[in-house]
Structures are given as structure tokens and as C-alpha cells.
Amino acid sequence: MKKHCLIIYMAVLLLIISGCSEQTSGREEEYPEKAIEIILPFPAGGNYDGAARTLTKYAEQYLPNEQSFALINKTGGANTAGVTEVFHADPDGYTLGFVQTSAITAEPHYGHVSYNHDSFQPIMKVLQVDGYMFVNDDAPWESFDDWLDYVKKNPGDFKVSAVPGAVPLLETIQAEAGIDFDIVPFDGFAEATTALLGGHVDATVGTVPGMKTHLDDGNVRPLFSSTGRDIKGDIPTLKEKGVEIEDNKMVGLIAPKGLPEEKADILDEVFKKALDDPDLQKEFEQLGYEAVYADAKEFQEQITSTFQTDEKILKTAGLIE
Amino acid sequence: MEFLHLDIIDIALLIFVILCGTFVGMFAGSLPGIGAMVAIVILLPLTYNMEPLFAILLLLATYQAAEYGGSISSITLGIPGTPAATATLMDGTPLARSNSPGKALAYSLTASTMGGVFGAVILTTLAAPMASFALQLSAPEFALIGLLGLAGVGALSSQDITKSLISVVLGLMAATIGMDDFTGALRFTEGFNGLIDGLNIIAVITGVFAISEILTMINKNLNKKRNVDREGKKVRLSLPEMTKTAKPMGIGSITGTIMGIIPGIGPGASSWFAYAIAKKSSKHKEQFGKGSPEGIAAPEAANNASVGGALLPLLTLGIPGSAATAVILGAFVIHGIQPGPEVITNEPALTYGIFVGFFLTTVAMFITGKILTPWFARVLTIPASILVPVILMLSIIGVYTAQSSYFDVWVALILGLCAFFLIKLRFSIPSFVLAFILGPIIESNVRRSLIMSDGSYLIFVTRPYSLVILLMITALILITIITKLNRNKQETTSNSSGISS
């Protein structure tokens, strides 16, 4: 008798459970129902790792169903290894990428990656990272015009240290402005900066987050920026000075193509709320990052136009045909 | 002083954090392929919610202990746990196999601790002057330092100098694979995307040492067990044994600290330098390569001294001196701190806390090492039939973890097979690895120097520091030739006298 009771009890229980589960799987707004993986194509502790971790820390507070993000550093191939992984992932909303757009706008031109500039579903732009040319604070060039004048009068004399990724841009600047300076490539930003601080080169190209310490200490100062947008302060951009070149470094979230619109909307809302958080903005500022939001459509347009300018830069530098 | 305001619970917690880091670091370091860098990267996410001081010290303790941990597998298995522990292999393995693994590990632990303490002393006392010294060195000096290392290659193999030189050339050739950073041209990548960044150092080291060693073990009797008696497992050094290795420890400490300060040289090269210098200046050169305690002490002191060295430019200039410190820089940044001269003036509590804590990491490393080493020494007594699958599995995991790349695993397996035959033909694998490490340093810095000087080779003699290094290279080569000539002369005279009598 007791045995029978137990069996009936179990059967009823099973029915209830299966009923429940059917109900949940039928509802779309349950996304996300597990942790969302975000692939970071750069090493832990490097480049934009800090920005990614700060952003997801805040975004988790707004993520439905108390789910979380799992950040995975997948490095190699000038950021292309991680981006390729996003490209091949299922567009189910559980694999995203937090990437520097150069891996999408510059690398495909070389023809050794399987994706293109329009192979992804962008979620949003998170950061705009402007490039600058920095000189030591005691350098003789006070302004862009001073510098241009010097370089024009002394061709091949001025030396700039740069990471390999910045070399094509520098070559294009030379071609566009009709000037000639020497580019000294270094493996990493640390080595390139050391060469500047030690006075072994005259300048280096880099970003504000990478130079924050030395800017705060007053050891270095920016001479000009290569960005295409208007920047605050009195530092000129190449475009303002009549050199028709722009280099827009962006960092943003992307997903594999085919991501359902509802899921994209949820993600956009979650991350936008995080970006609007004043505490996040304060943390970003301390690190020297500038949060610049652009929605999926606008972000894709910017990626496409940067893809075209990068093609021009790489052609001028003679790296592609 | 500010940092003494920590209450007793904080101090207990701090010690706990340091011990945790030490344990993880030592364990990770001893696994082939997984080194300081990977251990720090794994622990990094745990530090996000900690106080900055605790976070930094956890990572520093890991870094410090991993540099020692790498030598444990070098000594007991003949497989370096980290690239920086490859030089330890030269004498560590022979000494361990001649029935005293305990002694070999004890030399390594003592030297590591001394090196770590020396690095810490320099960091706390000479940070500012050393940093400005480091700034005066650039491409021409780095290129010559690399050449100096290659010139010292004669010190590595005493057997067959021709085959050793061929190994060097092979190593230099392997180092040219990958994208040329100066022109963007792809060299010898043969269409493989995995080769664009060149051969991964972890894959190379694991392949040529671990995989080849596994193949060698399979070739021998798999069920043979080494018997190590109680005495051989003891991890204790007598006073005379300590004083005997004081000189190489000093050499290692100084070399390691200086090489650590220079960004881009790395602990791998610094331990080889220490080994070469210690051998050149030793009274018992003939014992090197056969289990000389001096040959263990020098590289071991060097790789731990490089930890303090690498931290110096990070704290004073905000420039990381090694790959592992670059990750630690990331940890600072995540806590909203940009290391640099400002930090020392604005956050004295944190800076002094790091200085004091850094000394504690060496103490923690010594104690943990002392407790764990007798267990590690027993590894030698495990039969090969069990060791082989375990090492193979750990090696493959280690290589994969470094870059999450299957391609690297194949690289390691193929290079391992090649190395197995090269070892059978008596080529020198350490020479190959040294050239592989130094090749890119020399190549890129020579080219960089020539861009700086507009193509003039005079840049190598007009700069004071580079001139000094150049003279050292010349002296090293001259001494080698003169000693060789003298020996030949002696041999001929002794031969002729033998005939006449």
C-alpha cells in the first residue's frame, strides 16, 4: 500500500515538474538563462581588459534573471584569434566579443582572416580611444606648427617610436603632409614609451590610458591627435591642420551575425544603463578611458567608414595592393 | 608609518593571502608550461574585490613562488616548469639523478630566496637611481646584451662545440618565424595563422624539453624505479655548502636584478647569463653540467632576483619590466591606481606596504618550499610507467593554457619529436633554446639602433654603455681563444715530453 502511494506521489510530482519546465522554455523573455560569455581578444591585465571588467561589473547589476558574464581572454594573431572565435560562435546571445575595432577594420585587408567588416552584429560602441603624438615635456616643439616646421626643415631627423600597429598610420601621415621622419618600431607600448622617456627617440604615438601616469606627472605632453572627431581642450587634430587623415580607434561589443533582435535589445539596454552609471564613469575617468556610446546601427556605420580609411592607410603604407 | 595602522586581523589576513599566492605560484610554476604569467592571470579575477594592497601582494607572492616552482620540475624531471628555469636544468638534473634530489632542491631554494631578497633590497633602497639608469639604456645596448649572451654559449656545452654552434643557428632560425614587426612581412609562416606571432615560447620549451624527455623515457625501461635513500631526500644544506655557493648566488642576484629592470630581456635570458658568468668565474668549471651546486645557485638566484628587478620600473616609472609585471600593472589599473612616481608620493601606505609585503613573499616562499620540497623530491622514485602519461597530459594542458591554442600543442609535439632525434645525435638543446630566446632581442634591437642612427654602425661605439658591453664581448672571445691556445700548447708539450721519455 505504502509503495503504491509513493509511486502515485512520484508520478504527480513528475507531471508538475514537467509542466513547469514546459512553461519556462516557452517564454522568450527568459534570456539570459545562463551566464553570457564575453570573449576578450587581448591578454588579461592588458589593453582594454580593465575597461571590459569594469563595464561588466556594472552591467551585471542590470542583467535579467541575476545572470552573470564570464570573461574569456582569447589572445593571438593581433587580436584576430578572439574575433574569429566570436565569428564562428552560435548567434544565441551567449557569446559576445568586447573588441578593438582595428581587428575588424584593418586586419581583413591583409586577407588572412575568415571574416569581414560586416560579418558581425554590433551591439554598441563603448569607448572612443583617440591616438596622440606625445613628446617629452622639455621638447623644443611647443605647437603643431613648430613641429611641422622643424620636420620640414630637417627631413629624416625626427624619430618616433611606435608599436607595429601604429606604423601604417605614421607612414600615411608622412605621405599626406609631405614630410619625412623616422619610425622606430618597438614590440610593446612599454618599450616604446621607455625609449621616449630616456630621450632615445623624439616622440611616441599612443593613447591617453596608456600614457596616464606620464601625463599626470607632467613628463610628456601631446602635440596633436590623429582622431577624426572634435576633441576637448586645445590639442589640434591632423584634420584641423589640413592633413586629410583620420584614425578612429573604437572599442565595442559585437555578437555573431544572426542574433535575434529581442536579445540584442536586452543587451543594448543592459550595457547602456551601465555606461550611464556615474560610478562607472568615475572609474573610467581614473583609468583614462572615455565612454562614448553609439547604438548598433551607428556603430556599424563607423566600422564601415573606418574600414575604408584603414584600406587607404594600408595602401599608402604599401602594405596591401 | 601609515602601514603599521593595520590591525591584527588585517595582518593575519595579509599573511594568509601571501601564503595562498605562494602555494598557487609554486604549484603552477612546477607544472611544465604553466608559469608565473598564467598563474597571475588565473588569480587576477579574484583580486578585483580585494583591497589594493592585498591584491598586489597576492600576485607578487604568486610571481615570486612561480619563479622558484619552475626549478622543481627542472631538477626532479629534467623538464623546466618555466622558461626561466631552463638554465637550472644543466646541473639540477644531473645532481638529482646522482642520488641527491633533496640537495639539488635545497640549493635551488636557498639561492631563490637569496635572489628574491636581493631583488627586494634593491627595489626598496635604490629604486629611483636604478630607474634612471634603466632609462639610459636603449636598443644598441639591448642588442649587445643579446650578443654577449650568444658569445657566452661556449660556456653551455663543453662536449661538441661545432654541434653546439649548429644548434645556435637552428635556434636563431626558429626565432625568425612569424611577422616581421618592422615591415609587416610574414616570414616562414607557410600559410598557418598560428605562426603569425612566431613560435610560442611555452610551446617550444615544453616541446624540446618535456616531449623529448617523454620519448627518451619510453625508450628506456618503463618499470625501472630510481632508489633514493632517506639521506638523498633531505632538504638541508650545511654551512660549508652554503658558503661554497655564495659567489654564484651573488652573481645570479646581481645579473637577475639588472636584467629584470630592463624591459624586454626577461627572466629566461637572465638566468642563462647568470649561469654563463658563474661558470666563467668558477674555480671548478669542469663540474658544470655534471651536477655542480654552483650551476644551480646562479640561475636560481637570477630568476628570483629578476622579480624585484622587473617591479622596479613598474613602481617608479609605470613601465612593466616583464610580461608578468604587465599583468600586475593591469591589477593596479583595475583598482584605479596608475603606478608611477606619483604613487610613491601620493600613496605612501600602499607603496611601503608593497615593499614590506614583498620581503614577506620571499620568507613565505622559503617556508613553503621547505615544507613541500621533500615531497617533490620523491617524484624521482615514481616509475616511468606512471610518470610518462602524467607528464604528457600536464604538458599538453600547459601548452594549451598559454594561448588557448591547439596549434601550439601540435608545435610542441612536432618540436619534441625533432628534439628527441637532435638529442640522440648529441646536438645541444639548451643552446637552441638560448638562441631562440635571444634571437629576436638581437635582431629587432640591431635594426632599431640602425634606424636611430640613420644606418650608421657607429652608434654601438659612441654610446658609453654600449661601448662597455662591446668591450666585454671582445674580452670574452679573446679569453676563450687564449685559454684554448694555451691548453693546446700544454697538450702538445706534454705529448712530446711523453714521447721523448
UniProtKB/TrEMBL annotation, chain A:
This is Tripartite-type tricarboxylate transporter, receptor component TctC. InterPro entries: BUG (IPR005064), Bug_dom1 (IPR042100). Gene3D superfamilies: Bordetella uptake gene, domain 1, Periplasmic binding protein-like II. SUPFAM superfamilies: Periplasmic binding protein-like II. Keywords: Receptor, Signal. It comes from Alteribacillus persepolensis. Belongs to the UPF0065 (bug) family. Residues 1-21 form the signal peptide. Pfam families: TctC (PF03401). PANTHER family: BLR1237 PROTEIN, TRICARBOXYLATE-BINDING PROTEIN.
Automatic annotation (TrEMBL), chain B:
PANTHER family: TRICARBOXYLIC TRANSPORT PROTEIN. Residues 15-434 form the DUF112 domain. InterPro entries: DUF112_TM. This is Putative tricarboxylic transport membrane protein.
